[in-house]
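## retry 2 of 3
previous attempt timed out at serialization; input unchanged, resubmitting
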Amino acid sequence: MNQKGRIYKNMKKVELLAPAGSFEKAKTAFKYGADAVYCGTSSLSLRTRADMDNNDLIKTIEYAHSIGKRVHVTLNIFAWDDKYEEIIEMAKILNKVKPDAIIAADGGVIETLKQYAPNVPIHVSTQANIVSLRDANFWYKNGAERVIMAREINKEQLRYIMENKPKDLEVEMFGHGSICFAFSGRCFLSDFMCGRSANLGDCAQSCRWSYNLYAEEKNNPGQFYPIEESENGTSIFSSRDLCLIKELPEIIDMGVDSLKIEGRLKTEYYIASVINVYRNAIDDYMKDPENYDYTKYMKEIEKVKTREFTTFYFNDRNNKDFQEYEGKQYNPNYEFGGKIIDCSNSKIVVEIKNKLVVGDYLEVIIPNQIKPYEFKIEQLWDTETDEEIQFVNPGKAGQSVKMKIPIDVENGWILRRKK
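## retry succeeded, writing output
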């Protein structure tokens, strides 16, 4: 029993489920400890800007299965009738390549999947707004093997569902990442303002924009007074990012089956950083629950955050501290430095993601190790000519540079740059 009085009996290890907007991002997620990834083609998975076509999707599934990992395919749009021909064709493909699950929300889509992809388990998306035991039971009776809970529920509601659901119904929840301003992502703001539907995967993220607001005193109609947080206006719709690293022990103790990280459009750097933190936190808690210290994991998460964090409604239904009024979208202290692509020689080839200069400090994010390795760039060499240079800019896709790194590294490892 720990300091909060929890009893550890047959703790089940929660699945760590990572976002994968491309095949390369899937490989990064697996390298840094994800048990499974969720991904989908751009036209059917609520991410039209995701870099994944049918061939990439199949390649991701085959690669994952070759290393003992899992893939959950997102097919979670709310589909117009003219989309069903494409949905049926995709269902037939998935029935052949056999991903580990299909994530869907639309009842019509789920019925179509049951008909054309009967060999693939169905997970009901958070877009279905599952907030109650009755709701979870409804989807279970209609063939779902897993339900993905709405972000709006709190831990008491979640615990009640976990204690009373059918034993073989799995439960997944979001533990980290962006929160949509609308109820479980069922938003129409982008469609209204830009003609780009979030429910078809084309969200313009209008909630993240800065707005100019004005107040009109009713006795002086026509006179408007600006309401501003800064000279850029105010971001009244923008939510903070969810972070439940402190609450991870409670989530595991409840028996939640899968902890999901949001971010299919985020970089490999973000995926490596966040997945590595949660992998270490889960493993450490399972090994030594009484001495779980969330602060050491939070220190690493702080390096990659672009907005302030919130626990949303998980701890308190009355929580109001989850809006990001400043509209912040960047980290002032750290950025994506690069990705190791060839470590076969003493001079390591790094694909760069931001400007690197001799004298910069980089951190190697090491899989399954919470503390990164920091080093100073002493020399840089041009990849093609091997000529020594002082700096390099990311002028083209795949731009690379050679450097020496004082520790043994592997291809695919990510480097973080201190600004």
